[in-house]
User: Fold this.
Amino acid sequence: MRVYLTAARLSLRRHLAYRSSAAAGVATNTVFGFIRTFVLLALWRQKTVINGWDAADACTYSFLTQALIAPMGVFMTGTELGPRIRTGDVAVDLYRPVDFQSWWLALDAGRAVGSGMLRSLPPVLVGALFFPMALPLSPLRWAAFLLCCLVGYLVSFSLRYLISLVAFWTMDERGMAAITFAVGFFCSGMILPLTAMPPRLDSVLQLTPWAAVIQIPASVLFGTQSGGLAYALAFGLAWALLLLGAGRLLTGAARRKVVVQGG
Amino acid sequence: MTALPSQPLPDRAEPPTNPPTDPVILAEGLTKVFSSRARAGRLRRERVDFTAVDAIDLRVAPGELVGYIGPNGAGKSTTIKMLTGILTPSSGTLRVAGYDPQRDRVKLARRIGVVFGQRTTLWWDLPLRDSFTLLQRLYRIPPARFAENLAFYTEALDLGPFLDRPVRQLSLGQRMRGDITAALLHDPAVVYLDEPTIGLDVVSKHAVREFLRDLNLRTGTTILLTTHDVDDIERLCSRVVAIDHGRVTYDGSLEALRAERDLETVVRELYSRQGV
Assistant:
């Protein structure tokens, strides 16, 4: 267990060192927060309340989810494992006396915490200066939100780990990542909150794993999640276990038939 | 760098007095076939098999320093990947340090060290020292032993000046010394060195060789070394195993190999021999 904690800690420290990269990320996330907020406000002008959310909720959702992009890995760009498979450096990781999946979870978790520390607060603060915000004050609500984020992160990691593993067969994970980026962005509620989608589409999209990554934590924070925290956690954990299990099976298959690239 | 008198190494391949010991590396009929699909017409694809390692037999006794040589693409790296448990052999039996590398991969990993000359086993963005800390946890090295080993290698390989620098800032020679330390901190019984002197300047090559020889003599660590550098073989190896097209073309002592002519000619001949 200690090896994974050390790996996560060193990974965190490494990501905290990339200050200018984080600053650039913050700027991008904030600017896109404005764009998304204006789009949502145009929608909310047609109807003052959509599925229990008013315009202030929509603004809050927009900047809050911008803040979650980096730590939650919403772009589904895989993990740092993909490039290592592509170059063959994965050979080094494969012979280590550790569990492969847990090892990558530890490294990615360090990255996520670092991103959260550097990149999550500024977009929300800047957004609050220009738009009405409706963040709850109840600490319980925030605790529930953070718990859902943790579960959502596990879902996101297990998806991205699977995407990275694809590189063992296709030699490059980027094609797969391009597809899952488009699907994931839509399904997680980054384009439009799932709750603002037509009801039938919403009810389908609420079942994909991506719902647990963005929409459900936000709904829990706003107190509008149907089924409440218990449902949110059960839903997310079920997906996380399923996808982590799939990742485990695929890791085993990769081990048996991999071709490590390069001499 | 502790220099040792350059006396010829005792031939460890066949120890004259010692009782026969169990080989630390034992391969029998070790084979690896890679399959790929090649275009065979407009739509049809055909399975093409390529035998990278073809029924290799290899026995290495504890404490041997074996040079594993052969031209590019001969199957050296593939063999080493199987010996570390990364690649699953297509057929044949394999035991390293008493373990089946595929089945007991994790247990075996704690007993072996690997240096891939062309890639680093260190973490690119971390200071060298942090890479070592991570290795301590990975291999569960007791703190006292870790401190002792780190102090020894820092001295022996002169790591002091760059121990706190990120690996990406190190020169190739410094990185290689870091990589060698990384492969040895957990006192492995077997070390695979895959072209450890590649790209190094003359002085660094010399330093690495002296160090490896000293390690082998001092600790009895078994070393399997792949290289294209004739000097590496000449200065280090008591025994040479040559492969080409996945087959062993020579296995014997260095002395026998260069009994008649100089080593470079012999190696050139081994390399240019057509596969059987």
User: Anything to note?
Assistant: The mean pLDDT of chain A is 92. Chain A touches chain B at residues 2-3, 6-7, 10, 13-14, 17, 87-89, 91-92, 94-98, 255-260, 262-263 (CB under 8 Å). The CA atoms of residues 67 and 177 of chain A lie 21 Å apart.
